[in-house]
Design a protein that fits this description.
The chain is mainly α. The protein has nine helices and no strands.
Length: 200
């Protein structure tokens, strides 16, 4: 009797997991151990971030985008609707759409959502959070790149200039090291190179 009841509960639990799971049940069993379904959201978020990077590097762009979308959802669960980490997740999703799929309009929309979150969520004193400033640099740079693709060169230039100013300030305040600044500057120069031939 007890064994039959345990089997019934186990089957019921399997049905619930299958019903709420995003991927079909067979794929879950092939890819993840059953216990992975019950990880806390922060662990799932970290796993999704790792998967997104892995899929991206192996050119599985569709799966990478799916993982970035999951990252947004899990970040919202972990940190709430008005945390800078949610803005960062939207910027990462925007970069995914832009770099992996070439979808500039979607990228622009996600960056705008990130900008809205940062604008509404940051309260003074915010001068001690370097990660927020780094997120802002990525936000402005990604928006600039999306606008270049949409042939809105004036707006793109404004966003790239904001990213450049912010990285310079971060370097001057000692919040980033020179090597990191050089790497960001190199990326910004590549974006600037796409603006200037179009505007001359």
């Amino acid at each position: 009797m007890q064994e039959e009841q345990e089997t019934h509960i186990s089957n019921h639990l399997d049905e619930i997991v299958a019903a709420v799971s995003i991927t079909p049940r067979k794929k879950i069993q092939n890819k993840l151990p059953q216990t992975a379904l019950f990880h806390p959201p922060r662990e799932k978020l970290q796993l999704c971030e790792e998967k997104a990077k892995s899929y991206s590097s192996s050119h599985n762009y569709k799966q990478a985008i799916q993982e970035l979308v999951r990252c947004v959802a899990l970040t919202r669960i972990c940190y709430g609707d008005s945390h800078w980490k949610l803005a960062e997740a939207y910027v990462n999703l925007a970069q995914g759409y832009l770099q992996l799929k070439g979808l500039s309009l979607q990228a622009k929309q996600h960056v705008e959502k990130a900008q809205e979150i940062l604008t509404n969520s940051i309260e003074p004193p915010y001068n001690d959070n370097t990660d927020v400033f780094k997120c802002s640099v990525e936000l402005f740079h990604t928006m600039g790149r999306a606008l270049i693709s949409l042939q809105k060169f004036k707006e793109a230039s404004e966003n790239l200039a904001k990213a450049e100013r912010l990285t310079k300030e971060l370097l001057q305040c000692g919040r980033i090291i020179k090597e990191e600044w050089i790497e960001i500057q190199a990326q910004l120069k590549l974006s600037w190179a796409r603006v200037f031939p179009e505007t001359t």
